[in-house]
Recover the amino acids of this structure.
């Protein structure tokens, strides 16, 4: 049985609001003299308009390529000259600016956050470069069979919807993006809410640094709580032919947003199935059958219907066995509740993973900015840790049957393996109602 | 170039130095308390990487790392993982060319139990024949997964070409033929030879306030290691072979220009610090020489990276440029031009200071988590190089532009590199 001890709650932050409405949370922390900042701006690639997929990521890359009084080179000189890091990336739900710096440097760098979101240059020459780099990266990602299997499962589960494409975009649409669309996107930053979290040893006069005297206020607000639509899953088999040694299998479905109360049950199921070397999939597929090296569950937190995906890769000649065992594990989730012992271990792993995720300023800033960005409270993670203790196996089973009953299978590998795996899928209760959706 | 001189390295750091304990059998145990850490990391290190494998043992160091988790004389397969994870902990391991380490991250109140479990598991593995056969399948799947990544295949080929006849030229994962011929008895012999007091260290970092380390270890499997140890075999000196090679790979979407240079070995701490500075000056950040020229100005590459791999027999600087196949010649030419320019016109002091701060902050950020600190001090202790935490920062100050140019820049001359051009088939 589990003997894990509760994690001490994260201290409450100092909170204030910038003129214009952006909420700021500051957590002072002992340790090295560093500061991590995350500005989580709702509206990532899920907000890319039709025909403009890739816009959020392209904009993210451009925010540090010239803003306010600084050219891209000057900004890089400032940040790199101090030995620090300032990045901006788009995820599905947000555009996130990340700053990691020595505390002594924070006074010079924190004012950049506001300038980047309010006054990006969007210089045509830099747009051309950033767009070219993103197009090249999209092409290179095709080398990875895991990426291929993931892309086609995502495309099937979410189609033209908000999560149907990689944040980098779709090549044909990305190639057509230019300054007018980016100006629109930049003007909308903050309109759906944002949250700034600072963790570590911040400098004095923080408010003045974040909102220098005379600088315009950034119109923004506290992110609201979202209630995403229930996903409509259509089970299917999707295939990609590749001349590889292994077959990559991804079995998954679209579920619920982080804010949905059932997402905690899914998180516990993920811990049971895929976290650590005692996890169910690791033991059943790797240790008992030697079918795979890497096996796990991909279940990211999302503002909308989040994917919940089993993944592994196995030698082509073992495709049928790997598919059979993977489908059996999914079916097992639907057919029987976890034992009390399994649930206790899942809760212990959930607590352990939470503690491991609070080791660095950057980890805490990442997590808390995401939580606030979803419209949840600062104490959401601690409350979830407490609520986890109140679950019983039947409660998890009910959620599994509600949300995981109609998975789809994505395969990438050589033709003979696709054929063998497809045959297993076609005769399994999870796959029987469906047909092959794509074969390239 | 930087707009102005940045201020000197920050003085706000207050590093506590690691404590060293030597057990009666010679094993060294190093520990460091971290005020803000919520967890404790236990990290066992051993000089048992793939470089110590004899012919026929290729892949065994890594395979053994897998087998260790299959249980000990006292622990059934899987029992270690269940017990550690039920305590709210996690564990993992990694095998390199020179060494292997096994680490566990647990809450402070679980350290006593976790320490006993970890040392029992690592030092007394069961190596059950049935588990051995099953785990070999897993290792072969790991090998296949790696071979399905064309970039991995290209890097492995580069190392084979650059380090012929040296263990660094062989895959750590081994090869199928050797793996299929290996036996539990052979692995037990490998373990018995390598996991010896003078070749092991243990590190503890994080929330270890008032932890009675000496008492905890007194009756542990670590203290019970036979002190009549064999000395580690002398490492084979590395002599990188320069050359120019080409390779066509299926499923490669973009060309790769890969280059490898030999740099001073890990034991030369000062030279390693200098190499860190030089590789950062060349390729870390948008304003570094190579990134600025090849990606930002000429737009020849999607990315260009230059990584320093610090190794016992001789370090390796590995460059990767990702570009369109038709740009490869221009990329290669420009890399040579950048090198020539720095040789002819030493970079300004401000550029060196930028690199110094990038390296220093990277180091400083790496001291936050218990895992990274345990890894750092455990590795230092393993190779007899334990030093105050501030020492690497001090070493950075000993390098001037002139000294880098005289001592290290010539080592990165294009003609000293082993070059591999990987093209889409």
């Amino acid at each position: 049985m589990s003997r894990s001890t509760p994690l001490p709650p994260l201290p409450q932050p100092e909170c204030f609001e910038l003129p214009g409405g952006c909420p700021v949370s500051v957590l002072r922390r002992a340790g090295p003299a560093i500061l991590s900042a995350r500005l989580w701006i709702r509206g990532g690639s899920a907000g890319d308009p039709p025909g403009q997929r890739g816009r959020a990521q392209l904009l993210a890359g451009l925010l540090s390529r010239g803003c306010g009084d600084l050219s891209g080179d000057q900004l890089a000189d400032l940040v790199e000259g101090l030995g620090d890091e300032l990045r901006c990336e788009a995820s599905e739900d947000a555009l996130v600016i990340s700053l990691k710096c020595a505390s002594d440097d924070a006074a010079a760098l924190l004012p950049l956050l506001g300038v980047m979101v309010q006054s990006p240059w969007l210089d045509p020459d830099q747009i051309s470069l950033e767009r070219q780099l993103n197009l090249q990266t999209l092409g290179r990602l095709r080398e990875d069979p895991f990426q291929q299997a993931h892309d086609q499962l995502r495309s099937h589960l979410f189609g033209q919807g908000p999560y149907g494409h990689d944040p980098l975009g779709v090549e044909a649409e990305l190639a057509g993006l230019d300054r007018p669309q980016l100006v629109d996107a930049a003007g909308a930053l903050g309109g759906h809410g944002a949250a700034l979290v600072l963790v570590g040893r911040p400098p004095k006069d923080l408010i003045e640094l974040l909102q220098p005297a005379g600088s315009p206020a950034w119109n923004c607000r506290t992110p609201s709580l979202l209630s995403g639509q229930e996903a409509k899953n259509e089970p299917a088999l999707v295939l990609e032919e590749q001349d590889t040694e292994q077959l990559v299998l991804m079995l998954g479905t679209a579920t619920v947003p982080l804010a949905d109360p059932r997402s905690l049950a899914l998180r516990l199921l993920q811990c049971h199935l895929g976290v650590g070397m005692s996890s169910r999939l690791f033991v059943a597929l790797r240790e008992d059958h030697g079918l795979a090296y890497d096996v796990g569950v991909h279940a990211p937190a999302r503002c909308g219907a989040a994917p919940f995906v089993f993944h592994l890769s196995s030698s082509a000649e073992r495709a049928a066995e790997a598919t059979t065992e993977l489908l059996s594990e999914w079916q097992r989730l639907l057919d029987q509740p976890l034992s009390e012992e399994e649930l206790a271990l899942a809760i212990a792993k959930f607590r352990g993973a939470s503690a491991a995720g609070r080791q660095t300023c950057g980890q805490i800033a990442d997590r808390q900015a995401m939580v606030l960005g979803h419209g949840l409270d600062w104490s959401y993670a601690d409350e979830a840790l407490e609520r986890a203790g109140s679950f019983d196996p039947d409660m998890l089973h009910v959620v599994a049957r509600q949300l995981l009953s109609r998975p789809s299978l994505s395969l990438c590998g050589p033709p003979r393996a696709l054929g063998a795996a497809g045959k297993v899928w076609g005769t399994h209760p999870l796959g029987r109602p469906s047909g092959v959706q794509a074969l390239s | 170039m930087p707009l102005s001189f940045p201020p000197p390295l920050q003085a706000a750091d207050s590093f506590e130095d690691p404590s060293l304990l030597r057990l009666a059998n010679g094993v060294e145990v190093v520990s460091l308390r971290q005020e803000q850490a919520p967890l404790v990391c236990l990290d066992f290190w051993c000089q048992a990487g793939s470089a110590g494998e004899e012919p026929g043992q290729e892949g065994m160091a890594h395979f053994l790392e897998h087998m260790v988790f299959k249980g000990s004389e006292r622990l059934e397969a899987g029992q270690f993982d269940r017990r550690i994870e039920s305590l709210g902990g996690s564990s993992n391991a990694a095998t390199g060319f020179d060494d292997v380490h096994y680490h566990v991250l647990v809450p402070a109140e679980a350290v006593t139990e976790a320490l006993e479990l970890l040392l029992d598991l690592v030092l007394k593995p069961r190596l059950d024949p049935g588990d051995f056969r099953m785990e070999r399948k897993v290792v072969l799947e790991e090998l296949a997964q790696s071979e399905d990544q064309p970039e991995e295949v290209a890097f492995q080929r580069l190392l084979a070409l650059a380090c012929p006849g040296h263990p660094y030229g062989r895959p750590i994962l081994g090869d199928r033929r050797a793996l299929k011929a290996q036996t539990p008895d052979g692995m037990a012999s490998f373990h018995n030879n390598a996991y010896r007091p003078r070749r092991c260290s243990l590190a503890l970092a994080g929330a270890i306030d008032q932890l009675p380390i000496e008492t905890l270890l007194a009756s542990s499997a670590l203290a019970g290691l036979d002190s009549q140890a064999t000395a580690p075999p002398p490492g084979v000196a590395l002599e990188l072979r320069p050359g120019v090679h080409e390779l066509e790979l299926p499923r490669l979407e973009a060309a790769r220009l890969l280059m490898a240079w030999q740099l001073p070995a890990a034991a030369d701490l000062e030279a390693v610090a200098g190499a860190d500075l030089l590789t950062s000056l060349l390729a870390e950040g948008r304003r570094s020489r190579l990134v600025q020229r090849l990606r930002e100005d000429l737009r020849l590459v999607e990315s260009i990276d230059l990584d320093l791999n610090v190794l016992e027999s001789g370090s390796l600087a590995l460059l990767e440029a990702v570009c369109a196949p038709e740009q490869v010649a221009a990329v290669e030419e420009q890399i040579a031009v950048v090198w020539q320019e720095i040789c002819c016109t030493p970079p300004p002091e401000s550029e060196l200071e930028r690199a110094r701060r990038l390296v220093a902050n990277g180091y400083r950020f790496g001291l936050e988590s218990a895992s990274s600190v345990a890894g750092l001090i455990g590795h230092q202790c393993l190779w007899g190089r334990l030093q105050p935490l501030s020492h690497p920062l001090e070493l950075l100050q000993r390098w001037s532009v002139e000294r880098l140019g005289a001592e290290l820049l010539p080592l990165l001359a294009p003609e000293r590199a082993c070059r591999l051009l990987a093209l889409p088939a």
Summary: DSSP finds 15 helices and eleven strands in chain B.
